[in-house]
Amino acid sequence: MTPAGVHEPEPVRPPDAEPVRPTREDEVAAAGSELIGGPIGRRALLGTTWWTPVRVIALVAIGMFALGLVQKAPCYHSAWFFGASSQYTHACYSDIPHLYQGRGFADGLVPYFDKLPGDMDYLEYPVLTGVFMEVAAWLTPGSGSIQHQEQWYWFANAGMLMVCTAVIAVCVTRTQRRRPWDGLLVALAPAFALTATINWDLLAVALTAAAMLMWSRGRALAFGVLLGLATAAKLYPVVLLGPLLVLCWRAGRWREYFQAVGGAVVAWLVVNLPVMLFAFQGWSKFYSFSHDRGIDFGSFWLIWAQNSSNPPTTDFVNTAATVLVVLCFLGIAALTFTAPRRPRFAQLAFLMVAAFILTNKVYSPQYVLWLVPLAVLARPKWRDFLIWQACEVAYFLGIWMYLAYTTSGDAHKGLPTQGYHWAIAIHLLGTLYLCAVVVRDILMPERDVVRRAGDDDPSGGVLDGAEDVFVLGPAARPARHAAPFEASQVAWGRPEQPPHEGRSL
């Protein structure tokens, strides 16, 4: 163990370490590469042309985003405006055009300060998302029919969300430096393209991805600031501070953790405090709406409610969901302290956000965007990722077919209630499957594809290669005895081989 008051030097990475090439280590990636010429050769010159991984992946991500826009074309031309059911049968629904008029942007109302007509008295989104929506409204021409304005509003938002998509792809690609091509998982994720323009979640996802990049570079304060901004756009990013707490506890990195928390609190207050002071009712609408909202689409609570003669109340679900999230966090903490090797930050971040999603009383289809970057960093294995994505695409189609069924009157076009319950179950099982393989990687580090390739925690920043100072259970004794060896020789996760052992070719 490092003596008290003495900071352990950062691990020195081998200067000649080669980037990991997925087509050499992943059978699914190798098979898929046959479409573009096959796996990369031994003598390929990487990074010597303009086509670097970052640029390629950013362009692929933008291309997939554009395909997602094309998928929304039937709604753009008519379904958003003339047919409630057809926007579901074409699976092209989006909140964006509907809320242009429904939340007062068409009338020039100021979010949080001006009251809305009807039941929704104020905008029910966090402040930074409200700013994003208002900027798009400024870019929307105020002339022409309301249909024309809503189309332009959707396009203005789509352009801004496309920038967020590029930011996410670049940040994930650069977070794990030796694994840049893992970013293709984000760029090619089908559920990402299908749900990108349903709502404004990509703003928070982009800020969270940028925060993860800053942490991987050892910039704790910048991480905290970006995470605070992300939380000002959507509530879920704040849960990342939980797994970071237990990781910094195990590694004794308290200074960096408190820098991150301080940056997050200050950034969140800078965005929220002005609105809190001058328009408290409008500011608090998001929180009161989230609390008072009943059981909704996509959750296991809905299956329970629709199959019970005595469905759970909103208050019960609020309490139960909170208890379940806390229990999940305690389980993650126990896993962190007792694992044979300290888990990677991305692994715990994925598990924590997944727990938040699985226990929530609502699962909108775009919530999958929260998990995609974290899933890529946590488990960059094409087979497991595509299995999960297939489940999410099935849910994406299931919810729209269910809504088509409920809005088509006596025609009953679409998926009945029991069929929709199966779609929810598929989503839940797919997410649980990915959680299970991540937990297995934590308990069996030799199965972790990131560490098997020779890394320790490339998204961990100051945690990467750090010595453990607090470990519990069976892992405590060997971890303490092996710590000096791990800090020097396994900073890459690559144990030094005895001289007489050859390296396999």
Automatic annotation (TrEMBL):
Start and end residues of each stretch annotated as Disordered: 1-23
Compartment list: Cell membrane
Highest taxon listed in the record's lineage: Bacteria
Any GO CC annotation of this UniProt entry: plasma membrane
One Pfam family it belongs to: GT87
Biased composition (Basic and acidic residues): 7-23
Keywords in alphabetical order: Cell membrane, Membrane, Transferase, Transmembrane, Transmembrane helix
Protein topology in the membrane: Multi-pass membrane protein
One function term, GO molecular function aspect: hexosyltransferase activity
Transmembrane feature ranges: 50-70, 122-140, 152-172, 184-215, 221-248, 260-280, 316-339, 345-364, 385-405, 420-443
Family in the record: Belongs to the glycosyltransferase 87 family.
Protein name as catalogued: Integral membrane protein
